[in-house]
Design goal:
The chain is mainly α. The protein contains 25 helices and two strands. It has two domains: about 375 residues, no CATH class; about 150 residues, no CATH class. A two-stranded antiparallel sheet has the order 1-2. The longest helix has about 35 residues.
Amino acid sequence: MSMTSAANFKVKLWVPGDWNAFFGFGTNILVNLLVLTGLLRFVLKMPDALVFGRILPALGVMLCLSTGYYAYLAWKLAKRTGRDDVCALPSGVSVPHMFVVTFVVMLPILLATKDPVQAWEAGLTWVFVQSFVLMIGGFIGPYIRKITPRAALLGSLAGIALTFIAMNPTAQVFATPMIGIVCLAIILANWFGGVRYFGGVPGGLVAIAAGTIIAWGSNLFGLGYGGLTLGKVAGSFANFGFEFPIPAVGHVFSGFKYLGVIMVTAIPFGIYDLIEALDNVESAEAAGDSYPTMRVLSADGVISLIGCLLGNPFINAVYIGHPGWKAMGGRIGYSAATGVLVLVLTMFGVVSLMMALVPVVAILPILLYIGMLIGSQAFQESPHRHAPAIVLAILPQIAGWGKTIIDGALGAAGTNAATVGFDKLAQVGVLYKGLETLGGGAALGGVVLGAITVFIIDREFIKAAAFALSGAVFTFFGVIHGEAIGIGSSPTVAFAYLAVAGILYGCAKYAVLEPVLAGHADDATSLPTSVVAAE
């Protein structure tokens, strides 16, 4: 389209497909609201006055600002290009960070002080530090994205999608199959199979309605699927009322006394945010929508900072899933509408009622759908020859997820891996130290391993050596393959990366390469003729 016609192009803020994306994305956000509310109330034992009166209203303002900003970016892109298929980037509370700030930052301080307010203050300070890491990352992010292969970025993202996004919802779906599996089938039939439901009602809404009916209907027969009771519904009305967030600057700076604990996780997870945002911007570009990386990263930092200064201890992030919402027809309006919905839910205490009325397992299949879509996109949107690199980029996330499961199981038993003994765990096939090393800084570690493999496949050994050298530096300072930021955190792994860099540099200078089989450069990978022939 010409510049003149693009300038005169009238952007539609709402199209029919936005309804599908609105209910899908809105229920995704609702799941996260329900989960984090449960963490605040039942894990951190925070009083309802703090949860519903301070934290959730602040979170609502943050999410409204975020979704509104990304709708604006989508409008600008559509206006500039004259396209009517531009989809806004989804955004919300970072799910991995939700658990990190709860269990690694706030819970230890709660156990030490017996004061949930001090735990909340530490969480605010954690977000404050991370916000600045994100804003600084906004200036270097575009350069990182330029030199990093798509397969490495999307592969690391696929690892996150398959483990921390999809696995837990899938387990809960099959733990309550009468609700979970039925809702999953309704969603898959609509979003993958193209099945239209009566009156064009969005599949996400049909799934939630069906799950809610099954849950409440099961109470008539004494089965209690979903754990819903009238008593919980009646109790939820106590949290109704209008609450507007008030500044919490004093509480933010009160948390600075725990800065030592906070810095251990804030910087590495700030880097994680940087890589995750790069992955998601790359994912959106693969789906046809190119957004400015620096603006995305800077916006996440600024919006998270505003949220924490109002009292929200959770970080904002661009979400995985842009291709999914775009595929179901989402454009611009779904994002802004979701932000307004969240603002209403959080400021009026409606989340409390939602927790009592709707079974969470009816909503979880939507997260599984997003995990499926993003996991497959890594392979679909990268050259076929890079598929092995994608697999390697996924593995650190699997290791990190596995370690989390092991730690949770041992913690529930009142012990930990060190107490049980690493050798004893290894004797039954639980290679805890290996999972810990591989899974440390998994988002960035997956990108490094994936990039090395991509450049080896493409026979660009100097670039592969450069990424191996970066892996050595990151490892030496504990950013990847380590438990915390420090000097010499994992020296043997750092030395191994250094050795790999030397070997790859030697390959670039002295190796004799077998010719690539004609006609197979794009699909059979750039493998030696003998290997391709063996296939």
